[in-house]
Amino acid sequence: MKKLIVVALGLLIAASASASQMLVKVLQESDPIASNVIKEVPIKSCRMEQVPIYGTTSGSAAKPSVADKAAGAIFGGLLGSQLGSGDGKDAATFLGAIIGAEMVDGQVGQQKQQVITGYREQEVCEMIVQQSTVQEVTSYKTYIEFGGQIWQLNTPISYAKGDFIKVNVDITMAN
User: Fold this and answer.
1) How far, in Å, CA of 125 to CA of 148, rounded?
2) Fewer CB within a 10 Å sphere, N or C end of the chain?
3) What's the confidence (pLDDT) of residue 17?
4) Which residue has the higher pLDDT, 57 or 150?
5) Spatial contact of 154 and 141, defined as CB atoms under 8 Å apart
6) 83-86 — which CB contacts under 8 Å span 24+ positions?
7) DSSP state at residue 61
8) Region 21-40: what's the mean pLDDT?
């Protein structure tokens, strides 16, 4: 009987104020509510690759082409014609052409070349973003006692047994 009077008194007080906040006691620790959520998850993806090892070689592996020699002769001839004068100009042009062609032959023949000397295995990694469905706590079931009854609320945070929380109460009279 006393309990009924206390509940009625509580309801009368709550009814006098159309909507009010009341402190209520939490009955037990909140239970998490999990939902499936789609998230972008970074994943490290690695693989083994064959990577070339480079070295240099020198020697007469490369022979100059006819076009290379002709270009060297023309360039040398032009330079030689600038040095000579009179009857010596023809001789300087001819000598410059010979030297230019020989320089190309010597330069191309002694070029160092970069070649692949072998291979080694190397791990290559990259980050890939994948969409994945994961379970995530999105809210909590919290149980309170109000008006002699046990109520279940969905709350955004977890509460412990014995905590007090504010709830909005809106009571209207029925016709």
Assistant:
1) 62
2) C
3) 47
4) 150
5) yes
6) none
7) -
8) 90
**Sheet bearing 149-155, strands edge to edge:** 31-57, 113-146, 149-155
Q: What is the pLDDT of residues 38-72, one digit of tens each?
A: 888 889 999 999 999 888 776 555 667 777 777 87
Q: Residue 87 above 80 pLDDT?
A: no
The single-letter DSSP state of residue 86 is: T
CB contact at 8 A, 36 and 133: yes
The whole-angstrom separation of Cα 170 and Cα 165 is 16
With contact defined as beta carbons under 8 Å apart, do 133 and 123 qualify?
no
- Separation CA 45–CA 61 (nearest Å): 43
CA distance 87 to 82: 13
Torsion sign over Cα 145, 146, 150, 153 = negative
> What's the pLDDT score for residue 139?
94
Contact 58, 107 (CB under 8 A): no
Q: How far, in Å, are 1, 4, 54, 166 from residue 8 at the CA level?
A: 11, 6, 92, 20
Q: Which helix (H) or strand (E) holds 13?
A: helix 2-16
Three-state SS at 117: strand
Q: What is the rounded CA–CA span in Å between residue 3 and residue 144?
A: 17
Neighbours of 24 (CB within 10 A): 19
